Amino acid sequence: MEVINKRRSVRKYLDKKIENEKIELILKAAMQAPSARNQQPWKFLVCQNEETLVNLSKTSPNMKFVDKAKLAIVFLTDLDILTVPHMYSQDMSAAIENSLLEACSLGIGGCWCGIYPNQERMNNLRVLFNLPQNLEPFAVVAYGYPLDEKDLYYLNRYNKERVYFEKVE
Asked: Which of 22, 34, 67, 71 could form a disulfide with 54 if both were Cys (CB 3.0 to 4.6 A apart)?
């Protein structure tokens, strides 16, 4: 599971297109995520057009770097197919993490930009993409080949002070 240890948030990218086969692998990994009662509430808006990426980067202060990415995926929740509505944020988060791990395994960096539950950010994306009411923006993930190949590195975050066994002390 080396990929779990190497995955980092990468915000600076080479000017190199991500191959369609790799995009499909990233999407397949996202769709393999666990989901409450198998509701699989996700839809994916794949953005590669330079103008779209520039416009996307303007929708939230935490996404200014997205205009330098070669790929961004808007993770959308399909509200019409929810069977366990209170669990969809966990489902979507698992899909995003799967996509980031797959990207890392392919030598691609990524950065998860939170959108949900910030209504302003959600509305900005709804307007930008003219989304139907049933598709709710959850997050944007920017992807690209890291500008510095050392950006995907191991950092030991284990802290035994945060672990309890059998009872909280």
From this structure: 67
DSSP H helices in the chain: 2-6, 20-31, 50-57, 88-105, 119-129
Read off the tokens for 91: 């489902």
Q: Which residues contact 157 (CB under 8 A, 6 or more apart)?
A: none
- Structure confidence at residue 169 as a pLDDT band (50, 70, 90): confident
Interhelix angle 50-57/119-129, rounded to 10 degrees, is 160
As a dihedral over the C-alpha atoms of residue 46, residue 117, residue 109, residue 24, rounded to 10 degrees, the angle is: -30
Q: How far apart are CA 75 and CA 148, in angstroms?
A: 26
pLDDT digit string, tens, across residues 31-61? 999 999 999 999 999 999 999 999 999 999 9
Nearest to 77 by CA among 28, 48, 117: 117
The model carries a pTM of 0.95
